[in-house]
């Protein structure tokens, strides 16, 4: 029950990411990514200072996995935020939410974790539900930039699945807070390198954006993603990915209320299919 509660809280908070990002306007995706990561690292620092020395002297294998986790997290945020700025919230959430499929494949190939027979039908049901939610504007209304945004959302889906797989691999090696601090910090360094490569200014931001950046870091990132990492240590990653499907429902509701992006009338059918798919996966006992 504790895992379920934490996943519900994580999804409720993470679903605000797209809204906060859209409210920032045209702030570059790399700047959004960097500040949400570095603010999260700073917030965690007081709680991990005592553990940092022991964390840093771990084996080369652990360091390699931390670098990979940081890279995938950096690329997940960068590609997804870029997607949000090129296509609709519905398109971006739908395609990014294919991560359960990637998580399932990676779990089999890397972790050798076999899913129950109910997973594939539930996954297909969830994908159908997501398609119904955004059926009215899935093809991007003929905008070529929207197609690029759709592709970036798919890349983002793979990256978040790979990121959570690594969290499960290291569950016995590092405690959760030092792990999160290291991964967020490494991801921030990767992002900072891209910021410099693109020739961006770290300070050229509108005043209103700073508030949304802090909220994004402390809410969806520090609380939401940290809870996802914690859950990935206790249950198979594909179940965590399936729980995240409900983000598409909540984000679409938020977008309709706050951004006036009214969903298609089939949204309600799609939302019920997604909820049914998630419930069916979590009802199956290992």
Provide a descriptive summary of the structure in words.
The protein is an all-alpha fold and 286 residues long. It has one domain. The chain contains 13 helices and no strands. 51% of the residues are buried.
What structural class do the secondary elements suggest?
A: mainly alpha
Secondary structure tally: strands: 0
Strand content: under 5%
Q: Choose one word for the global shape.
A: globular
Task: Show the helix and strand layout.
Layout: H1 2-14, H2 17-23, H3 29-56, H4 60-86, H5 89-96, H6 99-111, H7 119-133, H8 144-169, H9 176-197, H10 207-232, H11 237-243, H12 246-258, H13 267-283
Short description:
With 286 residues, this protein is mostly helical. 78% of the residues lie in helices and 0% in strands. The protein has one domain (2-283).
Q: What labels describe this entry?
A:
286 residues, single chain, mainly alpha
